[in-house]
Design brief:
The complex is a heterodimer of chains A (about 700) and B (about 400). Among the domains of chain A are: about 140-150 and about 160-260, Phox-like domain (PX Domain, 2-Layer Sandwich); about 335-555, Arfaptin homology (AH) domain/BAR domain (Substrate Binding Domain Of Dnak, Chain:A, Domain 2). Chain A has about 700 residues and is mainly alpha-helical. Chain A has helices at about 1-25, 35-50, 75-80, 80-85, 90, 105-115, 190-200, 215-220, 225-245, 250-260, 270-285, 295-300, 310-325, 335-390, 395-475, 485-550, 550-580, 585-600, 605-635, 650-660, 670-690; strands spanning about 140-150, 160-170, 180-185. Chain B contains ten helices and three strands; from the N terminus they run ααβββαααααααα. Chain B has a three-stranded antiparallel sheet. Classes of the chains: A mainly alpha (about 700), B mainly alpha (about 400). Chain A: One of its GO terms (molecular function) is phosphatidylinositol binding. Chain A: One of its GO terms (biological process) is protein transport.
């Protein structure tokens, strides 16, 4: 417990210092989401720590209650312009209900919020196959709170053997579970067991692939980093399982998610004992006449060690198939299946190609962003230098200009980074499906191994029949019969009967697997379609948004932001001024507006429009300040909820409104970003100071 | 007598110019003196190491010193170098506009992009000279713009040989070399250096500026490369998406192939934008790196003049003492010594005058340089911002146009 607490706070510290670093580098308050996010990480980690004694608590299950800072309102109106026109939505704390319009939107919003933030990725992953799970019944799984524990058994050195358990919290409304919310602690080994059980019971299904054991990484990587990575992977995996229409109802998963204490599922016998088992069996199988395979065993693929003879036989059969000596009695006759298999193969190749290209695209985008940032920094340096060394006024004027460009470039690089993070999220679908292809292969090989079993049994049956016939013929020649021979024939017949049974079972299993294969292929096709379309849409939307807010608007934003900051200070000052019963100096407001007029990169018309807007704005500000005077006297209280947005000064919220009211239409974007900067950056120091 | 042709506008890197280059018409009325030059139609001549590019240099002017209103000559890069060197020799203290650097790597390839970049840079170079109030009256410029190819060739080959220089010059060069070497050997102990704090500051500024500018230029160049790379991977991604689409069913396949097509078109846009960025943003930055380097050459020139002046002053002092001694001893060498002294004195005065001239010219030039830099940088930044926003808009538009289709697919 202590260990993990340290771990978390350390992590938060790490984030914080990174944020500081970025702020330093950029030489101005940055708007990167990391800042607020690390904070939230830290907080959620803290709250989860505080809640661990309560088994039912789900620390991350309520994003709706998260800080309004974390759900940037400016982004919402991108999704749905109707919200933007509705002013009240900015005063109301953003509730999740109006953020979620459709599954897609939910994803998108969360992805924007939770870029790179594992702690908040509660909704962003696991969107695979979400499309099929109807909204009426859901299983929501959260993996959280990794804890180090001691291995109780056979540890000679205390502390030498530790493992990590994860709190797995499930919320569901599917009947059949006890309760709608429960949580258990599981370790990675248990997950391995679960996946093994599932693979045995659900042959022919496309079971989502389990996260790798990563033995090497666990040694090499930073402990906490590794645990975090695994936690995310496990969450993803379990969500995918829960998203599978058949497996989500499986007893194995239910048991895994619900039963407290040790996992009751039979752990598959480890290799050593299995070998031993097989070795004991081997002589009996080799010498004894009862070569029959028990019917219940044929439904399982031949496993190493347990029934070596069967493996030998099936190997022989497959060799016979390969060499074409004898035509196997049962062949893969489903032409359509073969075609589909072929297509799957094609698809896999294209998928891997596409995912590779996607990766390089992401890389290129990242490089672009980085270079843009570097360029920006170089210009900032140059600007600083020019300013310091300036001899002529023209230099200074240009330096101001240059600074705008530089800041814009830095901003653009941030946008690129944001864009990239989201692109990764979207194109991740490709990777997910590539991973899924592995399980498709598994399902197909299940099928072929079942087929092989059937083939082996059939050929064995025929050879048994042959032997029986021979024996019968031989015994019929000798009149009266040979008692031992008759016994042998009877034994043989018994064997034939058992084998026949086994064959039936095996054929049944094969048919079942075939059926599963077909259903799963259909399901996969359906889901893939939906997921891919969602992916495409997300990707495209993303590109539209993120790139669109590139340089030019950010040139405005730079100034808007500057003005914004100064306004906040003016506001702060007015508060003081009001207290000391002094007049407000409007000249300062006007001074702050000058940077806007300096924007030279505008066409005349644009500039004129802007100017007119700012004239109005100035007037508005006058009114506003007067209003503030009155309001301030009335609402001088710490009742934050009165302000509408929780935890924020109401006038910080009011300001963007002022912006908005005056800058409608073409200046919408300006307002949006100004508002955004307010909420992210402008407010924070103000808020802190205010305390 | 001649009003300066609005040199600022002459040196603007206007995009029209960079794109076409030949659309250079005299923009002022005949009453106003003008001199406008365009470097056009680069043609590759020769093979292998011998290969070079020749340009058509078109001059339009109403200067009385010129033969006619329009003159077309064929020039190659080394002719430009000749012009630069001549001007540098003659106009001490003036910041001679920089030439694009000689590239040994490109020599074997002469990519279209390189040729165009160089043509643009040469155009700017010669126009800057033409708009400089002093340089534009240079005889060498007239020669360069009007002489036929053979004359030019002869002049060029003469210039490149050292024999053109007078022996005294040679001695001077040798001496300079010596002092330079001793400077290096003695390290800090530079015998004669100007210790004017203002000038120190200026020098410092120029050196720092070079660092900053070249860093910015480096990043700009990388940005150009990144644009190209992003374009490339976008097109690859598009192709992959198309292939993936071919594996999928109708609607989905269509969506994928739409995406692929869009990606490919965008990649073309990106490549174009990369080119624009190279021409209108990176190249001006590079141009200024070069300009700063040329200023450094002038600074070195000034240092030389200063040193020369100091050395002469020192010698005069010695001579004076010597003369006084001779006067006292009433040696018959007095007359000779006096003559020598006078000569030296005249030379020293000349050197001082030259140095002072350089200082004066440089002070003027710095103002001009800053003005021009401000102007050109502003344009470069404007181009950069414009290009980026254009690109961003294009990308956004392209993707947005894809959205309805996808929506249709989804529903």
């Amino acid at each position: 417990m202590m260990g993990s607490e340290n771990l978390d706070s350390e992590e938060a510290h790490m984030y914080a210092s990174r944020e500081e670093m970025e702020n330093l580098v950029l030489d101005e308050p940055s708007n990167n989401n990391n800042g607020t996010k690390s904070f939230s990480d830290y907080r959620s980690a803290m709250s989860s720590l505080a809640d661990t004694h309560h088994p039912l608590s789900s620390p991350m299950a309520e994003p709706a209650d998260s800080d309004p800072l974390l759900t940037p309102p400016p982004f919402r109106d991108f999704r749905n312009p109707n919200v933007a026109t509705d002013n009240s939505s900015y005063i109301e704390p953003p509730s999740y209900s109006d953020v979620i319009f459709s599954p897609f939107d939910e994803n998108a919003v969360n992805e924007i919020n939770g870029v790179d933030s594992p702690g908040r990725s509660s909704d962003s992953s696991g969107f695979l196959s979400k499309s099929t799970s109807s909204s009426s019944d859901y299983v929501k799984i959260t993996v959280s709170n990794p804890q180090k524990e001691q291995e109780t058994s056979n540890s000679l050195v205390p502390g030498g053997n530790t493992y990590v358990t994860y709190l797995i919290t499930t919320r569901t409304n599917i009947p059949g579970h006890n309760g709608s919310e429960f949580s258990v602690r599981r370790r990675f080994k248990d997950v391995v067991t679960l996946s093994d059980r599932l693979a045995e019971s659900y042959r022919g299904f496309f079971i989502p692939p389990r996260p790798d054991k990563n033995v090497v990484e666990s040694q090499v990587m930073q402990k906490q980093e590794f645990v975090e990575q695994r936690r995310v992977a496990l969450e993803k995996y379990l969500r995918r399982l829960a998203g599978h229409p058949v497996i989500r109802k499986s007893d194995e998963l239910k048991v895994f998610l619900q039963v407290q204490g040790k996992l009751p599922l039979p752990t598959s016998t480890d290799v050593a004992s299995r070998m031993l088992d097989g070795a004991v069996k081997l002589p009996k199988q080799l010498f004894g006449e009862s070569v029959a395979v028990a019917p219940h065993e044929v439904v399982q693929p031949a496993k190493g060690g347990r029934d070596l003879l069967r493996i030998f036989k099936e190997l022989k059969q497959s060799m016979a198939n390969d060499w074409g000596g004898s035509k196997p009695p049962v062949v893969e006759e489903d032409k359509e299946f073969l075609k589909k298999k072929e297509r799957m193969h094609d698809l896999e190749q294209q998928l891997s190609n596409a995912s590779q290209q996607a990766e390089s695209l992401v890389k290129a985008q990242q490089d672009m962003g980085e270079t843009m940032g570097e360029l920006g920094l170089a210009f900032i340096k140059l600007t600083k230098f020019e300013n310091e060394e300036a001899i002529f006024n023209s230099q200074r004027a240009r330096a101001a200009d240059m600074k705008n460009v530089a800041t814009a470039a830095v901003k653009a690089s941030r946008f690129y980074r944001e864009l990239n993070a989201q692109t990764v999220k979207h194109l991740d679908t490709l990777h997910e499906y590539l991973g899924l292809m592995l399980s498709v292969h598994g399902a197909f090989s299940d099928r072929s191994s079942a087929l092989l079993t059937v083939q082996t049994l059939i050929s064995e049956l025929s050879s048994l029949h042959l032997r029986a016939e021979k024996l019968e013929a031989a015994s019929s020649k000798i009149f009266g019969g040979d008692r031992s021979r008759i016994r042998k024939i009877e034994e043989l017949k018994e064997t034939i009967r058992v084998t026949e049974d086994a064959k039936h079972v095996a054929t049944g299993e094969y048919e079942r697997i075939k059926e599963n294969n077909r259903n799963e292929l259909e399901r996969l096709g359906r889901e893939r379609r939906a997921d891919f379309l969602n992916m495409l849409k997300g990707f495209v939307l993303n590109q539209v948004e993120c790139v669109w807010i590139d340089i030019r608007p950010s040139l405005v934003v730079v100034s808007a932001y500057r003005v914004g900051i100064s306004w906040v200070t003016i506001k702060a000052r007015t508060a003081v001024v009001i207290e000391s019963q002094e007049a407000v100096r409007f000249a300062e407001v006007e001074e702050q507006l000058i940077p806007f007029q300096l924007e030279s990169h505008y066409t005349r018309k644009e500039a004129e429009m802007l100017e007119a807007d700012f004239k109005n704005l100035q007037i508005g500000v006058r009114h506003d300040v007067e209003g503030v005077e009155k309001e301030h006297m009335l609402t001088k209280q710490d009742e934050v909820l009165v302000a509408g947005v929780r935890g924020m000064r109401w006038d910080a919220v009011e300001l963007p409104f002022q912006f908005r009211e005056n800058l409608d239409g073409h200046c919408n974007a300006l307002w949006r970003y100004a508002a955004r900067y307010y909420i992210y950056e402008g407010d924070m120091p103000f808020y802190e100071e205010d305390r | 007598m001649i009003t300066v042709v609005n040199y600022q506008s002459a040196t603007l890197l206007s995009p029209q110019r960079s794109s076409s280059g030949s659309s250079h018409s005299p923009r002022s009325s005949s009453s106003q003196p003008y001199l406008s030059i365009s470097v056009t139609e680069p043609v590759k001549l020769g093979n292998g190491v011998q290969a070079y590019i020749s340009y058509r240099v078109i001059t339009k002017t109403n200067f009385p010193e010129y033969q006619g209103p329009e003159k077309i000559v064929i020039r190659r890069y080394s002719d430009f170098v000749w012009l630069r060197d001549r001007l540098f020799e003659k106009y001490k203290g003036v910041f001679i506009p920089p030439l694009p650097e000689k590239s040994t790597v490109e020599k074997f390839r002469f990519s279209a992009e390189f040729i165009e970049l160089r043509r643009q840079a040469l155009d700017i170079f010669v126009n800057r000279i033409a708009s400089h109030h002093e340089l534009q009256q240079s005889e060498d410029l007239r020669t360069f713009l009007q002489a036929d190819e053979e004359t030019m060739e002869r002049l060029r080959s003469q210039e490149t040989g050292i024999f053109k220089k007078k022996p005294a010059d040679l001695m001077q060069i040798f001496k300079e070399m010596q002092t330079r070497v001793s400077d290096v050997v003695l390290g800090k102990e530079k015998p004669v250096e100007e210790s004017n704090p203002e000038y120190e500051k200026l020098k410092n500024y120029i050196f720092e500026l070079e660092n900053h500018l070249s860093e910015a230029q480096k990043h700009a160049y990388r940005l150009v490369k990144r644009h190209k790379e992003l374009g490339q991977s976008l097109s690859d991604f598009g192709k992959a998406a198309k292939l993936l689409g071919a594996c999928e069913g109708h609607a989905l396949g269509k969506a994928f192939s739409d995406l692929g097509t869009k990606s490919e078109t965008l990649s073309v846009r990106l490549q174009k934008e990369a080119h624009q960025l190279l021409m209108n943003f990176e190249e001006p930055l590079k141009d200024y790196v070069r300009a700063v380097q040329s200023i450094k050459a002038t600074i070195a020139e000034r240092a030389n003049a200063f040193r020369h002046q100091c050395e002469l002053a020192e010698t005069i002092k010695l001579k004076e003492i010597n003369l006084d001694k001779l006067m006292l001893t009433r040696s018959d060498k007095v007359g000779e010594a006096e003559l020598e002294y006078k000569e030296l004195k005249a030379e020293s005065e000349e050197a001082t005058r030259r140095f002072e001239n350089i200082v004066r010219v440089m002070n003027e030039e710095i103002v001009r340089f800053q003005d021009q830099k401000t102007q050109d940088m502003g344009i470069a930044f404007h181009q950069f911002a414009k290009g980026q926003s254009r690109l961003a808009n294009n990308i956004a538009d392209a993707w947005r146009s894809l959205l309805p289709k996808l929506e249709a697919c989804l529903s």
